[in-house]
Amino acid sequence: MTTTKPTIVLVPGAWHSPASFAPTTALLEASGYTVHAVSLPSVGANPPLENWDADVSAIRTTVESAIGTGNDVVVVMHSYGGLPTQDAVKGLDASSRSASGERGGVIRLVYLAAFFADEGGYLMGFLGDQDLPWFDRKDDRTLSPATPLETFYHDVPYELATKNIASLQPHSYQTFWSKTGYAAWKHIPSTYLVCEDDKAIPAQSQDGLLAGAKENGGKFDTVERVKASHSPFLSVPEWTAGALRRACGEDVPVTAV
């Protein structure tokens, strides 16, 4: 029986960079994990992208690098990041690779207050094809959050929250209309981490996604809940790191929040 820890790949949401995960990443690395993080091309692109193809490619390249010569990989997705990742991991799961005579691959998906959809689904479809009140959409088809402190970071220490707000970049709006071609959560064991005090994707919406998955062949075998904002990797990094370690197969007690 191998005791080698899987490699972790982190996929940020819209507007965010890998640096946003820093408090949680540091805890994971201190626990012996190798962590790769994706820089989404749709974040800060000038001119903005017309679709999410570049995001899908960047995620896939990072996952392939993490697999390397045969590593097991757990892919952790936040918010928007859950959708392009579905397409990116097609054929990279451990079962598919094993059938092709290859070692390693994606053994689990972790959705951290993240969207997922059936084939043909897209982010704006969850919103009734209407911008949310806090969407600040520009004429060049870039999108920024009008109220990031309240929407993303209301429970994050103020200094850390303002630091992250300063690092946010405009997102390519058209990626929110790109449609998924592969429902990875039907094929790969999955964990969902529900953020119960989320102002961006309310817990009710997250629970609705899970209810739909249960009726539609989803492989969500684990659901954990935390009273936190949309950014638990900043507000409760100890809990988040523990949840990710559990998703990787460790027997880690739940940290009180």
Automatic annotation (TrEMBL):
Question: Does the record carry Cell inner membrane as a key word?
Answer: no
Whether Kinase counts among this entry's keywords is no
Gene3D superfamilies, sorted = alpha/beta hydrolase
What keywords would UniProt list here? Answer: Aminopeptidase, Hydrolase, Protease
Top-rank taxon, per record: Eukaryota
Q: Which Pfam families match?
A: Abhydrolase_6
Q: Cite the AB hydrolase-1 domain residue spans from the record.
A: 8-242
Molecular function, one GO term: aminopeptidase activity
UniProt name for this protein: Putative prolyl aminopeptidase protein
Taxonomic classification: Eukaryota, Fungi, Dikarya, Ascomycota, Pezizomycotina
